[in-house]
């Protein structure tokens, strides 16, 4: 049991900088292939825990990114080298790992779990998902030997002691970047989408449908947002171009099918839950194997905006009434109905804002 916990602690550190899609491989493979986990990987090597996290497992790792480590280094006033030389490094790493494969849907508010260093971590679901005081920013990144949940702060066990020798020789890390990284983003849903090239198609569609202003409203809104790759799959399945998708008379219906009114965090979802969307149809939640909305996998959860929350999905949701038009005519978009907590906000709106940027994205891919 202790060996499993140790592996998890290190895995946690390794996995903090996970991309939109989880790479194939074990926990160490994923961490080693991501530059945002450089400190975590170095710590794992220093503590000689690599082989443990390459074991059969399964392991659950709460993994801090390099930014999380930088924040800790600044707080302690030491360098990364000084942290690696600390005699209690192994205890810190082991504090991030739990034995078994624990998906986000297995967590419950107030739940505690023992870690490899002997202490327990605590789950708080009252405002998103927190492990102790660290927020889970990306959940359910599956590896061949477990699962990784990315956290924004390094978990520090109660028995951690800063070695005086490394501290005396260490140069303090600059405070500006960590301080900025810890500040909560005050961006609305559209601003977040505009700032991420993976949502360029979505933004173009949002602009086309004239829904940008809607998604910049007070809300709150919950958006199940497809990436560019998800739109590529849809275009290939329909055999059409991005321009032809933008010209579809039912474009607004497709976009509105991705939005629900109200701020619904991942911890508010339950298996079999059905929610009304802005398009008038319903979406269904399936938690039997990860998190699914209809047949689309949720790859990133709980991206909080000033006016709601975004959950990233890998497949565009298509309402049952959608009909592909070969020569679609321009049509005015329907107003977004507000019928209460179950009403939906046009995720389609978010999609609408992206076509322009998406054309450039596809051109760069062809180049």
Automatic annotation (TrEMBL):
Entries under InterPro entries matching the protein: Adhesion/Biosynth-related, FAS1_dom_sf, FAS1_domain
Source domain of life: Bacteria
Signal peptide stretch: 1-22
GO cellular component assignments: extracellular space
Transmembrane segments annotated in the record for this chain: 343-361
Keywords linked to the UniProt accession: Membrane, Signal, Transmembrane, Transmembrane helix
Residue ranges annotated for the FAS1 domain, each copy included: 24-155, 186-317
Cited PANTHER family: FI19380P1, PERIOSTIN-RELATED
Protein name: Fasciclin domain-containing protein
Organism: Anaerotalea alkaliphila
């Amino acid at each position: 049991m202790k060996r499993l916990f140790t592996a998890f602690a290190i895995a946690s550190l390794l996995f903090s900088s996970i991309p939109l899609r989880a790479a194939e491989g074990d926990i160490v493979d994923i961490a080693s292939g991501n530059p945002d986990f450089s400190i975590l990987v170095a710590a794992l090597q220093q503590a000689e825990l690599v082989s443990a996290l390459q074991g059969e497992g399964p392991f659950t790792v709460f993994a801090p990114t390099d930014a999380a480590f930088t924040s800790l280094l600044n707080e302690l006033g030491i360098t990364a080298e000084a942290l690696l030389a600390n005699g209690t490094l192994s205890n810190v790493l082991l504090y991030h790992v739990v034995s078994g494969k624990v998906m986000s849907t297995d967590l419950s508010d107030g739940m505690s779990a023992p870690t490899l260093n002997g202490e327990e971590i605590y789950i708080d679901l009252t405002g998103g998902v927190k492990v102790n005081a660290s927020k889970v920013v990306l959940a359910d990144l599956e590896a061949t030997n477990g699962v990784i949940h990315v956290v924004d702060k390094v978990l520090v066990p109660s028995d951690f002691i800063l070695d005086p020798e490394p501290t005396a020789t260490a140069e303090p890390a600059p405070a500006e970047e960590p301080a900025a990284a810890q500040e909560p983003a005050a961006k609305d849903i559209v601003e977040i989408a505009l700032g991420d090239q993976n949502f360029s198609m979505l933004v173009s569609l949002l602009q086309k449908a004239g829904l940008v202003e809607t998604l910049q409203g007070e809300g709150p809104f919950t958006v199940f947002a497809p990436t560019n790759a998800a739109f590529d799959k849809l275009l290939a399945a329909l055999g059409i171009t991005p321009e032809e998708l933008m010209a579809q008379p039912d474009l607004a219906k497709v976009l509105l099918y991705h939005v629900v009114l109200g701020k619904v965090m991942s911890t508010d979802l339950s298996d079999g839950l059905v929610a009304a969307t802005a398009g008038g149809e319903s979406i269904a939640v399936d938690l039997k194997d990860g998190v699914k909305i209809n047949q689309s996998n949720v790859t990133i959860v709980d991206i909080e905006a000033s006016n709601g929350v975004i959950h990233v999905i890998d497949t565009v949701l298509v309402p049952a009434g959608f009909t592909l038009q070969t020569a679609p005519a321009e049509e005015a978009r329907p107003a977004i109905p507000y019928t209460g907590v179950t009403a939906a906000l046009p995720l389609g709106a978010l999609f609408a804002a992206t076509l322009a940027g998406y054309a450039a994205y596809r051109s760069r891919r062809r180049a």
